[in-house]
Amino acid sequence: MEITKLSDRLKRVASFVPQDAKLLDVGSDHAYLPIYLLQNGRIQNAIAGEVVEGPYQSAQKNVVEHGFEEEIQVRLANGLAAFEAADGITVITIAGMGGRLIADILDKGKDKLEGIERLILQPNNREDDLRNWLSSHGFKIIAEDILEEAGKIYEIMVIEKGQQSLTAEDKRFGPFLKQSLSPTFKVKWQKEMEKLIHALTQIPENYLETRKEIEDKLEKIKEILYEG
Questions:
Q1: Residues 31/62, Cβ–Cβ less than 8 Å
Q2: Contact 3, 36 (CB under 8 A)
Q3: Which of 39, 117, 166, 207 could anchor a disulfide with 135, C-beta 3.0 to 4.6 Å?
Q4: In the chain, what percentage of residues exceed pLDDT 90?
Q5: What are the b/e assignments for 177-211, b being 16+ CB within 10 Å?
Q6: How far apart are CA 57 and CA 109, in angstroms?
Q7: pLDDT, mean over the chain
Q8: pLDDT > 90? residue 107
Q9: Backbone Cα Rg of the chain
Q10: Among 83, 86, 87, 121, CA closest to 104
């Protein structure tokens, strides 16, 4: 069986998984990520968690086709309910969901995170909500990444245990991303500026509070992009 081809987004997520990890992949999408990591000798074993019957069946079929029935267990479960302490999971990946949903999954299963060494999270939106939850629950961001794929921009957060104080600016832009100012980061926030400028044209002049709120957001983006 040939090596599973991953999207650039999932390859980037995979790059942050430590060698010899025991992985839980939440919302596993055909179990592509754990299969790829096993084919490349990166992890010991994995649980592929799916909450919907169709994707669960697809993941099971894919695992069997690749001959990884012993190494990957596919479980029909919601979020972190897919594993127990006895599974010895060390790393959790959650990719391709909204930031609020990821925060909700972590919050519902927070009692199970004690033995986890690393979380690798790829929210599709509301990254600020996710960073806020993490900083409020004893987790710190140790690395961030950003990439563009098929016209969409994705952020990746690498999380470990520890205290971290994040400013409102950190939560919005990402503490590492705002420092690196990568071309993709600039594209993302230039697009956001364009949306805000357009929004301003739609708001009547006498809506002073609303206009001020948008203008403040614009000013903050300009500070990060051009003065940081």
A1: yes
A2: yes
A3: 166
A4: 95
A5: bbeeeeebbeebbeeeeeebeeeeeeeeeeeeeee
A6: 24
A7: 96
A8: yes
A9: 19
A10: 121
Contact 43, 118 (CB under 8 A): no
Over residues 216-225, the pLDDT tens digits come to 999 999 999 9
Question: What's the mean pLDDT in 83-107?
Answer: 97
Residues 6+ apart with CB under 8 A from 129: 99, 100, 103
**Reported pTM:** 0.95
At position 65, the amino acid (one-letter code) is: E
Q: Which residue has the tokens 């609020």?
A: 100
For 73, how many CA atoms within 13 A lie in the half-sphere containing its CB?
A: 14
Sheet strands side by side (includes 152-161): 72-76, 43-50, 21-26, 91-97, 118-123, 152-161, 139-149
- In three-state secondary structure terms, 120 is strand
* Amino acid (1-letter code) at residue 43: I
Residue 102 structure tokens: 């990821």
Alpha helices in the chain (DSSP H): 8-15, 32-39, 53-65, 99-108, 127-136, 168-173, 177-180, 183-202, 208-222
